[in-house]
Amino acid sequence: MTLQVLGVNHVNVTVPAALEEATRQFYGEVLGLQQIPKPDGPRKNVGAWYELGGVQLHLSVEDETTNAASNRHICLVVADLAEAERSLRKAGTKIIADPRPVGDTQRFFVRDPGANLIEVTEQTPSETESR
Asked: pTM for this one?
């Protein structure tokens, strides 16, 4: 039998404890993600969980992070790339130009306060039609 992956449940990003509140504000207020309750347990009051369509984004606290040195990233799809860039700049977020353009794909990158890399790209017409 072959492994049959059905989807992605969540993505986890990490930040040092000192940057937890700034990062929560970034995901909740700057990106406008909806925070959802975490289940009961020892880490219920640490970090945060956000709903991202059918996938969740989990924010965890980890003091020995090396996020700024990493190219690992999540990719967020937006309806209007230019508007997303204006909104992020207005919030004081540094925009990182696409270092390796791929065909006609328009995208840019940002880092959250914990230095996690985020790719921002625009939804293509074919993605819109398939939804």
From this structure: 0.85
Average pLDDT of the segment spanning 43-51: 90
Residue 101: exposure state from Cβ atoms within 10 A (0-12, 13-18, ≥19): exposed
Q: How far apart are CA 32 and CA 28, in angstroms?
A: 5
Smallest Cα–Cα separation from 53: which of 69, 34, 68? Answer: 34
> Tokens 């398939």 — which residue?
130
Residue 17 has which token pair? 């404890």
SS3 80: coil
Token digits of residue 45: 């009051």
Can you tell me the distance from the alpha carbon of 128 to that of 131, in angstroms, rounded to the nearest whole number?
6
Which residue reads 């989990």 in tokens?
58
> 3-class SS at 102?
coil
DSSP state of 27: I
